[in-house]
Write a structure and sequence with these properties.
The protein is α+β, with helices and mostly antiparallel strands. The protein has helices at residues 2-16, 41-47, 67-78, 85-96, 114-120, 141-169, and strands spanning 26-30, 36-38, 51-55, 62-66, 99-102, 109-111, 126-131, 136-140. It contains six helices and eight strands.
Length: 171
């Protein structure tokens, strides 16, 4: 009996353990004329030798996803009701703007696919590359500045909302 309780306890702990974060920090970079940018050294190992370039979950930027993370994300979308038009639209956009098996070149750069650049970065040549816990996020410098301004202008209500959600989780 004690052994069974021990096993159940270990299973519960494993399920409650959060994803091990891998991507933190941010920096300002530029795109060259071909649409290439540097992948910061701090992110390369966690991305793996190949990774997927896609649209971010919020649809505002380009995400560099380790293969395992991208597969989980795509499986999550496929687990949703495929009869709902919003799910179908999101799934199709994800597929359209996803490019698997990407690598960095010998100089640590990636070529961002032209279709993805046009849709999300427009004509921007200055970008912010930042860690987003389980992926790397690339947005135009303008979008990054707007998001930061919005956060700092609304931080009290954002933090209150997060506190409410945490309280609900702990009940």
């Amino acid at each position: 009996m004690a052994e069974e309780e021990k096993n159940q306890s270990q299973e519960t702990s494993a399920e409650e353990t959060p994803i091990k974060p891998a991507f933190y920090g941010s920096g300002d970079y530029s795109l060259d004329a071909k649409g290439r940018t540097i992948v910061p050294v701090a992110y390369r190992k966690s991305l793996g030798s190949t990774f997927t370039i896609s649209i971010t979950r919020d649809g505002k930027g380009i995400g560099l996803y380790p293969t395992e993370v991208f597969n989980e994300l795509f499986n999550d979308v496929f687990s949703l009701n495929q009869r709902r038009s919003a799910v179908v639209i999101y799934r199709n956009i994800m597929a359209k703007y996803s490019f698997p098996d990407c690598t960095v070149d010998g100089q640590g750069r990636i070529l961002l696919p032209a279709k993805l650049r046009a849709a999300l970065l427009k004509d921007a040549t200055d970008v912010e590359i930042s860690g987003a816990i389980d992926h790397v996020r690339i947005v135009s410098k303008q979008v990054a500045e707007e998001e930061e301004k919005s956060f700092f202008d609304n931080r009290e209500s954002i933090l209150d909302e997060i506190a409410t959600m945490l309280d609900q989780l702990n009940q």
